[in-house]
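Long-time lurker, first post. I've been practising inverse folding by hand and with some scripts of my own, and I keep getting stuck on stretches where the structure tokens seem ambiguous. Below is the full token string for one chain I'm working on. Before anyone asks, I'm not after the true native sequence, just a reasonable design that respects the backbone. If someone could post their per-position residues I'd love to compare against what I wrote down in my notebook.
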């Protein structure tokens, strides 16, 4: 039996115990080899022999330098290591405290592998490594090895020695797999040196060892300090060695045993170094990128197509590695930095669609499986990985596989919500731990990575209804509150007893992990705002009546003014401010007159809109430019600024008393002053229109604005009347203002010629002695009007470029003569294939029939068209008579999608690679 000790072992044990001196015990050891056979050495027997020998005696042998003159210097060490290597396979003996205390001795021995006496030490070094590796098999042993800084010492051995280094690398990988990123300190030099040596070996070795090294390097990269390595890798040559080694493997005729470790290594390389690492080949940078992407897509399809969830879990490591490659590749392609021709795009799209069809198939099976609520830890991790990579695809290709996505969407939300609350609770519980702990990572938050995809999903009718049915808006509100607590970091309160002591102490610096968390939370809040903006616009009735959205608005009122005014917060600030405006517009009926709880919020939002443009920072004192503090982030907030200006105009109409803030703050006067100073032709037309629309609404809402406009000399024609025709400044301003008001009320009269009608409008507002100036003033006004409206050169170039590939059209509301005058004077006919004016037809926007008419004229199905507009009322909230009163027109799936493209930079729609041949563009300013 395994627990019985054989007679030979008992006899040897007795001899060893009866030895009266070390010399007798040393001699007795040789009796052991004579008396005991391998079959006698069971676990109990080994332990009895080890106790009989005693570690005190073995320690003397390990450390003694006093050897007979005719013996090698290491003879005693050799005997001790031979004994220990025989016994250390047993856990109890390998983790014996005396064994652990001998780790420095073992390390000293293996560090001599390059000494002159190497040949004599070969067996000793092997046995010392064997002891170390046996210790590393057990938790207490690994902890002891870490305490003795074995990883650092082994890394030094591997980088500096010539022989016996594979054992050192194996030991490093074993320990790093246990301690993760905490295995490495804050100085990355040793890690880079280690990777340089092992990557060079990987590149140059063409034997089977190459694939063993691939697995080891993969583990080292997976458990490295990624943020630190990514920041310091510039100038290192090991990434190039890795590139060449992996490229050689993947371009060769290989089997699964070689391909799998290469794909796993490539996945960890792109995860640490970024997908740009695949573009290392200067002559053909996209070749390896496309190869790796296609191999990953094919592997996912092979491993998941028509497979069950349990079957896929068996290959989770390989599939997850391919997911990493796919996710990073998709995100990179979405930036349009890679120059792919149409053939490349089609191949990539086909490969990705096949892979994600397989992923969706497995998710659908799992969603219908009764075990979905009882997933084990590894199973749940794989399910999360599937959701993560799928949502990366959906964030760019929302319309793909709609039916399958709809079937599995409730399950995706369920998984994402569970992961969010689990991660949130963990992070809140460990919030006080102000340390960088690379070993204890919080649970995965799948909702966080789903946010960009949700931005797109909620603009699809079916997906949005699932979103609302699952009460996902409540989860997103909880998510917003949580990320706000991180992004809007506040120092923990100091106990009263310690305040005096800490008064003169500097504030503790935030750790790199805290800074990274704040950055990620700011990004999350931007995505959350984009989702909630889409819901606010597309589900207006629900938002108007919702208690939750009222709470959200109150949260913005109370918290946005407290946000620190620093550049890092600008994009987040803008999104929260504009979300608040949209919510305020929808819930205007609930706002009590002079509810001054919103004062600070309105002031903060005005400041965001006001500070975007100025003249002071321009090289030309008459040119309007984006402010320096906005310039870095302008791409992210440009359309947000226009939406904010438009929504603010709408709010002033609904809640007139808010206009007081625009007056008292000096904003209205500042806008007018800016318009007066800017040189004609240099003011971007869309900015001018945004300002003018806002000022018009301001005048209608608050009579007190008129004197401000007159004081600032806003109107160009008024300046002409004053300067050339002797009008007083006040009379000139009043005349010009009256004309513009009359023109906006009725820009066209179908019974009178256009020029005659507008001249008549001037004649009506001019004093009796100056009515003869009507025709002259109309001509000058018309000249200035179209000078401002002229298409900038870059817009003309864009339209010309678009028309090379697409059919373009315009739909515009307004009177026939006025709109066609605008079209003719701006020479728009040469850019567009179809131009529709509402007065020429039985319908006007937002009636869906006018959109169908444009599609008919272009000869393109509605589902293959894309529309672009800037007004909610006529562009997005298309009349349809559903239970919410408004909806996007059936057959126009891209309608709301393009709304997000124009106004919500955080949820940009990117068409599939097989995009259609038609784009429907609309000009929406009727009375410019």
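-- Answer (accepted) --
I ran through it position by position. Result:
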């Amino acid at each position: 039996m395994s627990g019985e000790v054989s007679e030979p072992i008992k006899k040897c044990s007795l001899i060893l115990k009866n030895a009266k001196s070390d010399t007798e015990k040393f001699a007795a050891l040789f009796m052991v080899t004579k008396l005991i056979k391998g079959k006698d050495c069971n676990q109990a027997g080994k332990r009895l022999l080890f106790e009989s020998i005693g570690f005190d005696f073995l320690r003397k042998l390990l450390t003694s330098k006093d050897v007979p003159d005719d013996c090698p210097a290491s003879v005693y060490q050799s005997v001790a290591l031979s004994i220990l290597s025989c016994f250390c396979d047993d856990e109890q003996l390998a983790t014996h405290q005396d064994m652990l205390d001998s780790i420095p001795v073992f390390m000293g021995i293996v560090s001599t592998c390059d000494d002159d006496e190497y040949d004599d030490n070969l067996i000793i070094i092997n046995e010392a490594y064997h002891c170390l590796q046996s210790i590393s098999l057990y938790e207490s042993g690994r902890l002891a090895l870490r305490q003795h800084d074995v990883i650092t010492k082994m890394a030094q051995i591997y980088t500096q020695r010539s022989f016996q280094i594979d054992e050192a690398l194996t030991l490093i990988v074993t320990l790093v797999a246990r301690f993760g990123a905490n295995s490495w300190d804050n100085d990355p030099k040793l890690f880079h040196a280690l990777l340089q040596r092992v990557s060079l070996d990987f590149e140059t070795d063409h034997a089977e060892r190459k694939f063993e090294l691939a697995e080891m390097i993969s583990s080292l990269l997976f458990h490295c300090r990624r943020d630190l390595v990514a920041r310091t890798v510039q100038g290192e040559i090991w990434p190039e060695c890795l590139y060449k080694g992996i490229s050689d493997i993947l371009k060769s005729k290989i089997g699964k045993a070689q391909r799998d470790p290469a794909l796993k290594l490539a996945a960890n390389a792109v995860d640490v170094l970024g997908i740009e690492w695949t573009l290392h080949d200067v002559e053909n940078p996209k070749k390896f990128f496309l190869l790796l992407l296609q191999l990953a897509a094919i592997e996912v399809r092979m491993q998941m197509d028509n497979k069950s969830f349990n079957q896929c879990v068996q290959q989770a490591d390989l599939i997850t590695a391919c997911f990493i490659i796919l996710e990073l590749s998709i995100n990179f392609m979405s930036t349009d930095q890679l120059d792919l021709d149409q053939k490349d795009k089609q191949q990539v799209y086909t490969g990705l669609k096949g892979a994600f069809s397989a992923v969706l198939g497995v998710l659908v099976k799992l969603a219908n499986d009764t075990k979905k609520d009882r997933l084990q830890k590894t199973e749940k991790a794989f399910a999360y990985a599937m959701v993560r990579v799928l949502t990366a695809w959906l964030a760019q290709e929302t319309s793909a596989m709609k039916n399958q996505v709809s079937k599995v969407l409730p399950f995706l939300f369920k998984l994402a919500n569970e992961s969010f609350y689990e991660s949130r609770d963990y992070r809140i519980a460990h919030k006080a731990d102000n340390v960088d702990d690379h070993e204890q990572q919080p649970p995965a938050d799948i909702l966080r990575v789903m946010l960009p995809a949700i931005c797109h999903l909620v603009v699809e009718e079916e997906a949005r209804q699932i979103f609302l049915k699952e009460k996902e808006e409540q989860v997103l509100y909880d998510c917003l509150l949580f990320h706000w607590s991180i992004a809007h970091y506040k120092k923990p309160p100091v106990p009263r007893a310690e305040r005096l002591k800490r008064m003169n102490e500097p504030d503790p610096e935030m750790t790199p992990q805290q800074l990274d968390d704040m950055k990620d939370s700011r990004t999350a809040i931007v995505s959350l705002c984009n989702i909630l903006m889409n819901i606010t616009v597309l589900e207006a009735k629900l938002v108007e009546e919702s208690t939750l959205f009222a709470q959200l608005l109150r949260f913005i009122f109370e918290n946005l003014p407290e946000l620190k005014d620093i550049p890092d917060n600008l994009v987040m600030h803008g999104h929260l401010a504009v979300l608040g405006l949209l919510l305020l517009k929808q819930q205007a009926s609930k706002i009590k007159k002079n509810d001054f709880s919103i004062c600070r919020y309105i002031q903060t939002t005005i400041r965001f809109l006001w500070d975007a443009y100025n003249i002071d920072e321009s090289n030309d004192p008459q040119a309007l430019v984006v402010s320096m503090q906005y310039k870095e982030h302008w791409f992210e907030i440009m359309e947000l600024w226009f939406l904010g200006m438009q929504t603010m105009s709408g709010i002033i109409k609904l809640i007139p008393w808010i206009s007081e803030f625009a007056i008292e703050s000096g904003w209205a006067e500042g806008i007018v002053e800016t318009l007066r100073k800017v040189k004609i032709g240099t003011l971007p037309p869309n900015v001018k229109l945004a300002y003018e629309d806002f000022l018009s609404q301001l005048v209608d809402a608050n009579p007190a604005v008129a004197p401000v406009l007159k004081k600032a000399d806003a109107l160009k024609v008024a300046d002409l009347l004053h300067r050339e025709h002797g009008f007083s400044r006040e009379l000139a301003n009043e005349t010009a203002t009256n004309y513009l008001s009359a023109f906006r009320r009725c820009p066209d009269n179908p019974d009178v010629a256009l020029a005659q009608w507008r001249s008549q409008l001037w004649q009506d507002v001019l004093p009796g002695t100056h009515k003869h100036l009507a025709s002259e003033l109309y001509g000058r006004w018309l000249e200035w009007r179209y000078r401002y409206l002229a298409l900038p050169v870059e817009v003309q170039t864009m339209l010309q470029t678009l028309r090379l590939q697409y059919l373009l059209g315009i739909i515009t509301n307004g009177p026939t003569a006025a709109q066609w005058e605008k079209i003719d004077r701006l020479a728009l006919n040469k850019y567009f294939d179809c131009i529709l004016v509402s007065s020429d037809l039985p319908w006007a926007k937002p009636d869906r029939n006018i959109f169908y008419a444009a599609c008919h004229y272009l000869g393109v199905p509605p589902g293959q068209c894309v529309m672009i507009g800037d007004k909610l009322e006529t562009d997005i909230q298309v009349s349809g008579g559903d239970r919410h009163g408004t909806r996007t027109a059936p057959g126009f799936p891209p309608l709301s999608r393009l709304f997000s493209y124009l106004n919500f930079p955080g949820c940009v729609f990117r068409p599939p690679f097989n995009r259609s041949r038609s784009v429907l563009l609309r000009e929406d300013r009727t009375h410019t």
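A couple of notes from the structure itself: The beta strands are 613-614, 625-626, 809-812, 834-837, 867-868, 920-921. The first helix runs from residue 7 to 18. Happy to go over any region you disagree with.
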